[in-house]
Amino acid sequence: MSVWLIALIKIIVLFAWLMLFALYATLLERKESAVIQDRHGANRASIFGISSFGIFQPFADALKMLFKEDFIPDFADKKMFKFAPVLTFFFSSLVIIAIPFGEPIKIGDKTISLQLINPDIALILIFALSSMSIYGVILGGWSSKNKYAFLGTMRATAQIISYEVALIFSVISLIMVYSSMKLYDIVLFQKAYLWGWLPRWGIFLQPLAFIVFIIAAIAETKRAPFDLPESESEIIGFFVEYSGIRFGVYMLTDFIETIMLSLLITVLFLGGWHIPFIERTGLSANWIKAIEIIGFQIKTFLVFGFLLLVRWTFPRYRFDQLMELGWKTLVPISIFNLIVTAIVIGLL
Amino acid sequence: MRGFLYFFETIKGLLITAKHLIVNSFFHTLNYIFRIKTKRKGSVTYQYPEEKKPLYPRDRTLHKMMFRDDGKPRCVGCMLCVTACPSDCIYVKAEEVDGEKIATTFIVNVNRCAFCGYCVEACPEDAIRMDSGKLDFVGYSTNEMVLNLLKRN
Ligand code: SF4
Ligand code: SF4
Q1: Which of A4, A208, B83, B85 has the greatest number of beta carbons closer than 10 A?
Q2: pTM for the complete prediction?
């Protein structure tokens, strides 16, 4: 009984965390892009005259989205059209169930792990779920029966399928190093030191895999510089027929995917919640746990900021350049990395 | 080789945007959270209603009637501005006051005004000027945009 209660509480907390992060991610993106471009960004939304740098902006946006006309074109396949955004949203936010947020904490005589489930195949599960979300994109573009939406869908499908290859290859070399697919074990593995001073993080063990992973994963999230599926200036994208809150769900899904990506990068490459040398400071175990949980959030936030920085720095690729980068650069690099990793592990 | 150069150039690009981000957020934090005014703003934009862009002296803004020391308008009703106006938006009516011809009605229909400044150029008495600095005049109806310049405020 209490197991289910704990699971329920975890689900609610996770979902609230995710929604809040995603809402504020929209604000963060607007602010960060503005500051990069020497502007101010959204700072006008106010409640009772208190605007405080636009912290109410996400709610104003959400309200606006809710009250906009929900237009469904006559020629669209209505059921599929309504179903598609929910599908992407569902699958891309489901990834969070396997992410560990910190060491297990003790409340009373119970030990609560800060992770909803810890399956043996966590990595496979995560990549399966995140690739499922492409179905929502395909359905959305297809059921709109609009040629621009269709073009966007085709681009999205081709892009995601070709970048999945490099992504999975780079993850395979990681799995070989960590010799586990459980995300919790992966973080535990990273909590050690090489030669006594270098944290055994994925970014130091597998720098090449890190670069390939980050590029391929940005391509997976369909954001600039790989935003061909929704290139606003040419075809508007697979959601060209969507309006109001349905479009809002697609937009939010974009941010959720980016959040998932930053969570994954933190767990796989940046040592999860591990803060180097904290166990040598002589703090008590509970303090270390609390600091590590906060550290995990900060790391995720910084990675997210970095992804936004990438999004606002580079112009969009052309489609042939995109495919070339995927198949001719990233896949060979990741296979090379895989072979080198295999040889090194075999020799050690 | 080209690939490597490309990679380094992308890193350089990232560093440029990162520099903007960090420097500007530093000044934003100083100015808007700690309320310390610095000379450098961290942004090149103006926060419009609170912070107005400085106008050049030659900028043409809303019309303004000049008045003499005794409170009478300088306009003598010569109708030169009415003739010069390409949009036909000035209406002047003059009467004799104390043995002098003085405008008693001076109406500018800003709805139609093109802000060309010809009326200012035409006036021999320097009675009408466009240096009031007002750019943000609005109204709920077109009637509110028909201004009586003789009303002093
Ligand atoms: S500025 Fe030009 S259009 Fe406007 S009232 Fe003067 S002459 Fe007419
Ligand atoms: S404003 Fe100047 S030009 Fe126009 S009627 Fe008066 S004196 Fe003449």
Answers
A1: B85
A2: 0.83
